[in-house]
């Protein structure tokens, strides 16, 4: 709760200009619909009155995945933070909604906010994990072929070499997995 209030304060002071998304290619938040919350109607007075609105939006990722996406919705009187339930895959969208108070529905806007640096690190760790799995699979296949071939001093030295490579790759895989899951924990808490 405190983090959301701090984020809202920073956004209000900074004029709602978040540069975090600019590093991603074309992520967007598009307004789908703004509707009055049932039972609330504007009262005609000389001073403006805030009314609760339901803001329905569609958050879309660009060319890169967005982990732990968060949409910050602001109006002329309030700022809300909406954490999306799932990560956004490349070129994928998710529809969500929130209630927000505003004197005018025209002032309600949404902006996508990401944990960009940690997301990049998690994407790199995920790629490294995949690369190690491919190498390990190749070495295991080579080892199986070598085991099925006739015994010779040359095959024995290759067998020892492949076995030690597989042991090292398994250690790297374990370390890469630990790093990847640690980063996911940082992102998703």
Element layout with pairings:
Blueprint (H helix, E strand, L loop, with lengths): L1 H13 L13 E9 L14 E10 L9 E5 L4 E5 L9 E10 L6 E5 L2 H33 L4 H36 L1
Antiparallel strand pairs: 1-2, 2-5, 3-4, 3-6
Helix pairs in contact: 2-3
Summary of the model, kept short:
The chain has 189 residues and is of the alpha+beta class. The protein folds into 2 domains: 2-114, Immunoglobulin-like; 119-188. It has helices at 2-14, 116-148, 153-188; strands at residues 28-36, 51-60, 70-74, 79-83, 93-102, 109-113.
Characterise the protein shown here:
The structure is a single chain. This protein starts with a helix and ends with a helix. The longest helix is centred in the C-terminal third of the chain and has 36 residues. The protein contains 3 helices and 6 strands. The chain has 189 residues and is of the alpha+beta class. The strands form 2 sheets. A 3-stranded antiparallel beta sheet has the order 1-2-5, with no helix packed on it. Helix 2 runs antiparallel to helix 3.
Keywords:
23% strand, 2 domains, disordered N terminus, Immunoglobulin-like, 189 residues, alpha+beta, 3-stranded antiparallel sheet
Find the count of extended strands (DSSP E, 2+ residues).
Answer: 6
Q: Tell me the number of structural domains.
A: 2
**What is the terminal separation in angstroms?**
14 Å
CATH topology of the largest domain: Immunoglobulin-like
